[in-house]
Predict the 3D structure of the following.
Amino acid sequence: MKYSVEVLSPEQWATVSEGTHFEVFGTLKPKDWDRIDYALLALREGEPLPMAYVTCREVSRDCVYWQFGGVFPEVRGTFATWAIYKTFIEWARAKYKMVSTYTANDNYAYLKMALKAGFKIIGTRNVDGQVFVDLKLDFKGEE
């Protein structure tokens, strides 16, 4: 199965962000959490339904920060999750030299996927007693 990426402006994302976050995580989030330049939706080719999303903030013209993201319940834990993640990475590779993000150190599924995709752990941070892992995917070495 192939996936395409749709880019949403902050205004477009604002209209669907709360529902999307609830669908993916089962919790509501404050609207002011999205300090983004755009959001990416992964769509199954030929179908209008989103399969996953990631919100993005450009750190520089060479680096994008992936703020929040996730897959919808119907694809969670399936091979589609990996295929979608790789689709987001390929989209970023065509536009940037680096992707940065972070996740909770006990988010084993995401950490395993990120490391398999080539992300490197570049640090940790402690926020309110929870440890987070800083991750970076550097495309510059591939040129």
Summary: The chain has a mean pLDDT of 91. The radius of gyration is 15 Å. The CA atoms of residues 6 and 41 lie 5 Å apart. Helices lie at 10-25, 79-95, 108-117.
